[in-house]
Amino acid sequence: MGNLDSEASVDRARMRVQYLVRVGETELREVAIPQPSTGEVLARVNLALTCGTDLKMLERGHARLPSGPFGHEWAGRVAAVGEGVREFETGNRIVATPTAPCGDCVYCLKREESLCLHLFEDVALGAYGEYLLLPRHIVRRNAFRIPEAVSDAQAAVLEPLACVVHGAGRVDLSGDRTVVFLGDGPITLLFLQVARVGGAGRTIVIGRHPRRLEAARVLGADAVIDSRESDPRSAVEALTDGLGADTVVECVGRPEAWHEALALARRGGEVLFFGGCEKDATVSFQTERIHYDEIDVKGAFHYTPATVRRAWDLICGGAIDAHPLITHRRPLDDLTGAFDLVRRRAAVKVAIVP
Ligand SMILES: [Zn+2]
Ligand SMILES: [Zn+2]
Fold first, then answer.
1. What tens digit of pLDDT does each residue of 287-328 get?
2. Model confidence over 221-251: pLDDT tens digits?
3. From the CA of 342, which ligand is nearest?
4. Which H/E stretch holds residue 146?
5. In this structure, which ligand is nearest to the CA of 164?
6. 9-163+303-353 topology per CATH
7. Cβ count near 3 (within 10 Å)
8. Which residues pair with 225 in a beta bridge?
9. Which of 19, 98, 148, 201 is deepest in the core (most CB within 10 A)?
């Protein structure tokens, strides 16, 4: 009996978590369940979501994120709390973003926390696993208790939605503007909903996957353009009296798409480059588009505590429907199968259930 008990407790002290070993390779490892130190929270993951960033990390590596424990969109329950944690107790449902700014560096002091110099130093990665340890600065700044009315799936889109809210704040999506989203992935599907809340006039989605374009329509796109069937530039011109879009939001993350985004904007319009390209990627463009046509170009990266909070309020207020984005479910040991679905664009997002 004693032996069985101690074996069982050893068992309980281990957990499974997916590691990104190197580009192209993940591995399900068994490791010790971490114990929370002062200010930290240990969460048990109920569900994690695949993300375009993870696909990039898997296919080509990432300019900012390291290999190691894999996965960063999730929702779960508090399994243990470290000393001094007051906001959470064991059993609470919880969600958090994978990073939080330091609060002290030159960018944090300017309130430009998406540029924090220490953003990637102590991250909470490993959501494709059974437990996830949240460092103190994340617990303090970017973690929330999930209310009963909010499902795990809804809560788990907090991180991508916070990025989208951050991006949306850098352009004008309001009033009678025509906004073109280039790309038909989960980011566009979230952007559409944020744009609708912000009162965007007309939204057009350009993509090449009928099922995703259909999801875009369901989520409120006024027009969708299948780029395999028609030339996006002529199609946008036809919809805008030959002018082009007031705002173009690039959500693909490839140089060709960056190039195309600039071509879709009207004179005096603006372009938001939301999709991060491969490290060292370059794009060339006609300078006259920026100079003579006065097109404003901007980048958007990551999120700040303010946009995380705004994203969380949108989720809790019922303004965001995450369910059309989550098209498949897979167990933790079939991460490869899950990313195959995403790579083939058969899935939008896959829920990974430990
Ligand atoms: Zn993500
Ligand atoms: Zn900082």
1. 999 999 999 999 999 999 999 999 999 999 999 999 999 999
2. 999 999 999 999 999 999 999 999 999 999 9
3. 1
4. none
5. 1
6. Quinone Oxidoreductase; Chain A, domain 1 (3.90.180)
7. 7
8. 206
9. 98
